[in-house]
Amino acid sequence: MNGHPARLNGHLVIGGASHDFDFVRLELLKLLAAYPHVRVTVATSFEDLDSLSAADFVIAYTCNVEPSQAAQDALHQFVADGKRWFALHGTNSVLEWSEAGVEAPPRARTFMETLGSQFIAHPAMGPFEVEVTDSSHPLVKGIKPFETTDELYLSDFFGEPEVLLATRFSGEAPGFIRDQWPDDAARPVLYINRVGDGEVLYFTLGHKRGHWDAPHRTPYYPEVEDGSWATPEFHRILQRGIRWAARLDDGDQQ
Q1: How many CB atoms sit inside 10 A of residue 130's CB?
Q2: What is the residue-wise DSSP string for 190-217?
Q3: Nearest 5 degrees, angle CA 18-CA 19-CA 24?
Q4: Most buried by CB count within 10 Å: which residue of 110, 135, 204, 238?
Q5: What's the number of domains the chain is made of?
Q6: Distance of CA 51 to CAs 70, 76, 87, Å?
Q7: To 10 degrees, the CA torsion angle through 134, 139, 142, 145?
Q8: Model's pTM, two decimal places?
């Protein structure tokens, strides 16, 4: 190999509803471009199974993108065979809107079990404190507790994920069918879900919405929501997550 690193194939899935996917796509591609030997395919759904089968790792940032059963099975097998999937923000959401509110129906079970969780609700976007639950893990080593303004995800979990970051919440999630969350429980923000010989890293932060990204609510959304993209700790963990997914383990944590 003349000292050159071997080519790595990444597969990036970005798309869905209610978010500025153009912004996120560009930001993730810029981070991946720091590694010239990493070549990336890009899709808006999970149905490109040829690119998935050729990939060494997957990164996904979606919202309300429900894979077919064939794609769910392929993603599960991809991870179980020993590969890694870095999933961000709304990837674990399958939503239905009605006059009664937003519901997260129990669908795409294989997909959710592979991810380790299913999004159910969130309170109004606002500031909250994020705590490190395992300061020795390389993904969060050196990260101090930090405040961010984002959507605080309330989810159902499958199995026992290894939680690296968490916050606490009790109260209401207005607008969602399951709007009451009375128990003051720890809510995972960053966790690892092990599937067979592989792993999924899930990071719930990263909401981003511009003026034209919520047509289900209004043709022109009044405020630009930057979420944790304005938070330095989010960027540090995002960069580490990319390196983790691609196994770029040279020990240089930024």
Answers
A1: 27
A2: EEEEEETTEEEEEE-----B-TTS-TTT
A3: 165
A4: 204
A5: 1
A6: 14, 15, 17
A7: -60
A8: 0.96
